[in-house]
Every structure is written in C-alpha cells, then in structure tokens.
Amino acid sequence: MAQTTQIAKSALPRGFKILLGISLAVNLAVAGLMAGAFVRKGPGGPMGGNAQVNYARPYIQALPHDQRREVFEALRPAKGGADRVERRAHYADVATILRSDTFDRAAIEVVLAKQSASTLDAQSAGQTQWLNIIEKMNIEERRAYADGIEDALKRGPKRKPKQMQSN
Questions:
Q1: How many domains, in total, are found in the chain?
Q2: Whole-number pLDDT of residue 82
Q3: What pTM, to 2 d.p., does this model score?
Q4: DSSP classification of residue 53
Q5: Is 71 buried (19+), middle (13-18) or exposed (0-12) by CB count in 10 A?
Q6: Is residue 145 a contact partner of residue 62, using CB atoms and an 8 Å limit?
Q7: Cα dihedral across residues 143, 147, 148, 149: positive or negative
Q8: Which of 37, 65, 82, 149 could join 86 in a cystine, given CB atoms 3.0 to 4.6 angstroms apart?
Q9: How far apart (Å, rounded) are the C-alpha atoms in residues 55 and 65?
Q10: CA–CA separation, 130 and 134 (whole Å)
Q11: 8 A C-beta contact, residue 47 and residue 40
C-alpha cells in the first residue's frame, strides 16, 4: 500500500504579506518614475528631453500670484511631515546602505516608503489648499480660471535659457 505524505503548507504571516505588497507597490512606483523620467527627458523622448512635466503645473500657473503662494506654502512639509533635515537623512541612509558589504533591499525599501509617504503628504496638502481656493470662487471666476488653465497648457512650462557649455 502506498504511503501518503502530507506536506504542510507554510503559511506566511499576514504582516509579512502586507509588507510584500507594500514592497511591490514601492518598486513599481520607482520603476514607473524612472521609466517616466526616461520617456519624458531621455534621448529621443516625446518631450524632446527638455520639458519638466508636472500634472499640477497648468493648475498652479493659471492661479493669481497670491493664490499660487498659498498653494506653495501648503506644500512645505516642515509642520506636518519630514523637514529638509529629515529628507536629507533619508538620502544619507540609502547611501550608507549602498556602501555596506551586502545589499539590503528591504532596508532601502523602508527608506523609499518613507520618502514616498512624505511626497504624498506634501501633494495632498497642496491639493487640499488648491481645492480650498477653487471652492471659494464664484462661477465667473471658475470659468475664467478654466480659461487660464487652457492658456497655460498652450504656453507650456516656462523654460529657462540654456546655459553656455564650455568645451
């Protein structure tokens, strides 16, 4: 008679599965950012290698100066999130991890997750402030603002003059 052996299924702890999911999301986000940067700015990219693409640019550019300043003030993360020192520390952490004898992918993923959270916090604050501004507009102001967004799209980003290159 043939004996059957039971193979125990190794169950991963739920927390580990969540961590793997977060790790995958961060990896995909980084890969997407790199691919997007190459497509937009890389050789032969559709943006000609010069454009700085930012989905919020037309929205911000169409606002009056004082309201633009309000949105930019909301982007300053010092009060609610990572300040400049903390952001620089994240880069230093990655550099330290990269210099170690063995590559610790998980440690870098933790730092990238912190950087991503900080970026998303700032983006959310900027969006909230922008929505607060739009919400206060009457219909005529909103229609004029919509025209301004279309004009900003037609103009494109403000370009800085190319610096002279020395040979």
A1: 1
A2: 52
A3: 0.53
A4: -
A5: buried
A6: yes
A7: positive
A8: 82
A9: 19
A10: 6
A11: yes
Q: What is the pLDDT of residues 55-102, one digit of tens each?
A: 788 888 889 888 888 888 887 765 555 567 787 888 999 999 999 999
Flag whether 40 is in a domain. no
d(CA 100, CA 102): 6
Q: Scanning the structure block, which residue is given the tokens 């229609």?
A: 143
81 domain-assigned: yes
Is 1 a member of any domain? no
Question: What DSSP line would sit under 70-110, residue for residue?
Answer: HHHHHH-TTTTS--HHHHHHHHHHHHHHHHSSS--HHHHHH
- What is the enclosing helix (H) or strand (E) of 16? helix 14-41
Q: For residue 150, give the CATH number of its domain.
A: 1.20.120
Residue 135 inside a domain? The answer is yes
